[in-house]
Amino acid sequence: MTSRLSHTSVDSRDAYAQAAFWAQVLGYTGDPDDPDEPGDEECLIVSPDGRTKILFIEVPEGKSAKNRLHFDLAPTDLTRDDEVARLLQLGATVVADRRVADGTGWFTLADPEGNEFCVLRGDLERPDPWAHLIRD
Asked: CA 78, CA 40: separation in Å to the nearest integer?
């Protein structure tokens, strides 16, 4: 027997704002059968195919240490650098620039609540479509 992931939960100070930020980052939407509103303590976003879900849950404490789990993003239709520029406009901040002169490497960014995530090279920058599975 095995299990499957139902969804990924992320502790948040403002579940609605975090869900809105990540929905824009990932191209996800809210649950049309249970729309989220400001002040909701739990806000769910869902991938376009409905298979991946992220639930933001309000907790009273803020982030206090480095994430034990984080998202690695691989842009689908932009370069890494163009995607970083887009994410900065949405409210992300740069934590570290790990790009290398040969074009490999990544950016570590933080979402509006300080949760780190990485932006790898985009699909347009990779000759191997499976290379996004290896952090470069």
From this structure: 33
